[in-house]
Write a structure and sequence with these properties.
With 138 residues, this protein is an all-alpha fold. It folds into two domains: 39 residues; 90 residues, Orthogonal Bundle (Cytochrome Bc1 Complex, Chain D, domain 2). The chain is 49% helix and 3% strand. The chain has seven helices and two strands. A two-stranded antiparallel sheet has the order 1-2. Helix 5 packs across helix 7. The chain is elongated. The protein starts with a helix and ends with a helix. The chain binds heme C (HEC). The site of heme C (HEC) has 24 residues, from helix 7.
C-alpha cells in the first residue's frame, strides 16, 4: 500500500512529464474554486448578457438608442450602441470598463452631471447585466 502511488504512475510517462500532471491538477482546482465563487455572488462578479438583453427591451432603451439584438422602434435621441464593446469611452470621456458602464446605466448623472441620458431607475444589479450585454457588441 505504501508504494501504491509510485506503482500507479505508468513507466512510459517520462520523469520530466510528471510535474506537468501535478500542475494540471492545480490549474483545474483553481478553475473550480473560481467557478464556485462566481456561483455564490453572481451580482458582484459580473452580469448575465442574456438577462441584460431582455432588461434593455423592458426598460425601452431603444426609445433613444439603436441596440443590435434588442427589438423596438430604434429612436435616435441617444447615440447608437452598436460595437459598444470596442468603444474606449462612455459618453465621450468616461473610460469604458464594465464597472463604469454599470454605474453609468444605474445613475448617469453621477458619472456626468448634466448629461441628457435619464436615470431610468435601473438597479445596479440590472445595470451589470446590461453592461455585460453591451460588452458583447463588437
Ligand atoms: C430619453 C432617452 C434615453 C433613454 C431612454 C436611454 N438613453 Fe442612454 N443615452 C441617451 C443620451 C442622450 C446619451 C448621450 C449622453 C451623453 O453623451 O452625455 C446616452 C448615452 C448612453 C450610453 C453611452 C453611449 C456612448 O456612445 O458613449 C449608453 C451605453 C447608454 N446610453 C445606454 C442606455 C441604456 C442601456 C438604456 C436603457 C436602460 C438607455 N441608455 C436609455 C439617452 C437615452
Amino acid at each position: 500500500m505504501r508504494n501504491h502511488f509510485a506503482r500507479s504512475v505508468p513507466r512510459s510517462v517520462p520523469f520530466y512529464a510528471r510535474p506537468l500532471g501535478v500542475l494540471g491538477l492545480c490549474v483545474a482546482l483553481a478553475a473550480c474554486s473560481e467557478q464556485g465563487e462566481r456561483d455564490m455572488k453572481p451580482a458582484v462578479a459580473g452580469g448575465d448578457p442574456a438577462r441584460g438583453q431582455g432588461l434593455m427591451a423592458q426598460y425601452q432603451c431603444t426609445a433613444c438608442h439603436a441596440i443590435p439584438g434588442v427589438p423596438g422602434a430604434a429612436g435616435n435621441a441617444g447615440p447608437p450602441l452598436d460595437g459598444f464593446g470596442r468603444r474606449s469611452y462612455i459618453a465621450g470621456g468616461i473610460p469604458n470598463t464594465p464597472g463604469a458602464l454599470a454605474r453609468w446605466l444605474d445613475n448617469p448623472q453621477s458619472m456626468k452631471p448634466g448629461t441628457p441620458m435619464p436615470d431610468l431607475g435601473v438597479s445596479l444589479e440590472e445595470a451589470r447585466h446590461m453592461a455585460a450585454y453591451l460588452a458583447t457588441l463588437r
